[in-house]
Amino acid sequence: MTKRNVLFVDDEPNILSGLRRMLRSMRKEMEFHFAESGKEALEVFAASPIDIIVSDMRMPGMDGATLLTTVQEEYPQTIRIMLTGQADEESILRTVGVVHQFLAKPSDPETLREVLQRACALQELMNNDGLKSLVSSLGSLPSLPAVYRELQSALHNPECTIADVSAIIEKDIAMSAKVLQLVNSAFFGLYKNIDSPSRAVNLLGLDTVKALVLGVGVFTELKPPSSKNFSLASLWEHSFTTASFAKKIAQLESNDKELIDQTFIAGIIHDIGKLLLFSSLKEQYVEAVDRAAEENLSLSEAEIAQFNADHSDVGSYLIGLWGLPGQVVEAIAFQHRLEQYPEPSFCPALILHAADIIYYSLKPEECIGRAPVINQAYLEQIGMDDHYQAWFEQCRELLQ
Q1: What phi, psi does 158 have (nearest 5°)?
Q2: With left for phi above 0 and alpha for psi between -120 and 50, is residue 61 left, alpha or beta?
Q3: What confidence score (pLDDT) does residue 211 get?
Q4: Alpha-carbon gap, residue 116 to 29, rounded angstroms
Q5: Tell me, what's the pLDDT at 10?
Q6: Is 118 inside a domain boundary?
Q7: Given this model, what pLDDT does residue 107 score?
Q8: Which of 84, 97, 209, 400 is the most buried (most CB within 10 A)?
């Protein structure tokens, strides 16, 4: 693995000195840089490429929000992490679309090491030459869907109400129709007719509705040209069903609301890379699809042969640039390569991997090329090798 450059920015020299001591054991893996101001940090960027920046929020002159916004604009491939204290809630809201991950200040050494190791592993995927070449050939990457962005902004207002959220959704007729259609589907098990966005928000909760709005927005704004080899309706159905499976698996094993919500969001947009590739490089992508079917390759293998990167690389790169939560980005990046995931655990990447496998096991006719199989070695490594069958049965029941 390439040695990664990590930059820490804080206006307090004592904190930087403490970080130097804390991270001494990781110097073989990473090259550490330190800056005492936003201006000095940008000078470091100008002198050498930086893979990860960890910045304090409260600094005189250029604060962390301004610095990381500048980094996002000028060095979009850099992973951006913010150190914040309890009093920084307002600052967090200012930077939610800019920062990949927030860390509490002060952060304990083990947490910081784990975050940096995961960020480096993700950077390794996002920085491969094939992906760089592929992304540059796509032209301009799409921005975060407008309705989702507006919804995010509203939800960060402490005075935001259910009615405010509903009004935003209702601005988009297609969005309203799709959210209501999904809410009334069997997957949510509500067994009642929901006829207004406000009732949907009340029953499902804001995080679930946010995920649905994001998914609908992505599929609306990234609508690819028609093709007999690629169906937008099928991709949406697969994405939503996989998200529902992922949420069910998360609920079976954990009460962590954040884990459950982020897993559902990851499921909704886990194949956004396919959508982007087909929208931008239709002929080459159809070749990859055909190759997978003809040579009995997995779709990821065929994509890598065609582009030197696959749809999970492209998807994680894009949503990383959008600033979605780090675990969502990781889940999409590692869904087809769990063996490369650092610190193996019951995590969104594993949940998404299992949900995707279960979907194609239950609907083999939907699979392009060789059917994927569960990563049994990973399950054994985390002591969950006997859990998969229960997940499968619960998801099959949900589908029926």
Answers
A1: -60, -20
A2: left
A3: 82
A4: 10
A5: 92
A6: yes
A7: 75
A8: 209
pLDDT of 373 above 90: yes
Contacts of 379 (CB under 8 A, 6+ apart): 350, 385, 387, 388
Domain total of the chain:
2
- Please check whether residue 388 is in contact with residue 374, taking contact to mean a CB–CB distance below 8 angstroms: yes
**What distance in Å separates the CA atoms of residue 81 and residue 132, rounded to the nearest whole number?**
22
**How far apart are the C-alpha atoms of 355 and 267, rounded to whole Å?**
8
For residue 287, what are its two tokens?
């070749």
Residues 116 and 9 in one domain: yes
| In a shared domain, residues 203 and 120 | no
Backbone dihedral region for residue 191 (phi beyond 0: left; psi -120 to 50: alpha; all else: beta) = left
Give the DSSP H/E element, type plus range, for residue 80.
strand 79-84
The one-letter amino acid code at 39 reads K
Q: What are phi and psi of 103, to 5 degrees?
A: -125, 135
121 and 155 assigned to the same domain:
no
C-alpha 6/C-alpha 50 separation (Å) is 6
Task: Provide DSSP, 304-315.
Answer: HHHHSS-HHHHH
Question: What average pLDDT does the segment 156-166 reach?
Answer: 82
> Of 92, 127, 162, at which residue does a domain stop?
127
Confidence at residue 292, expressed as pLDDT on a 0 to 100 scale? 93
The answer as to whether 176 is a domain residue is yes
Domain of residue 76 covers 4-127
CATH code at 167? 1.10.3210.10
Instruction: Report whether 36 contacts 10 (CB < 8 A).
Output: yes
Chosen domain end from 82, 99, 127? 127
Q: Output the pTM of the full model.
A: 0.71
Q: Do 336 and 231 form a contact (C-beta atoms < 8 A)?
A: no
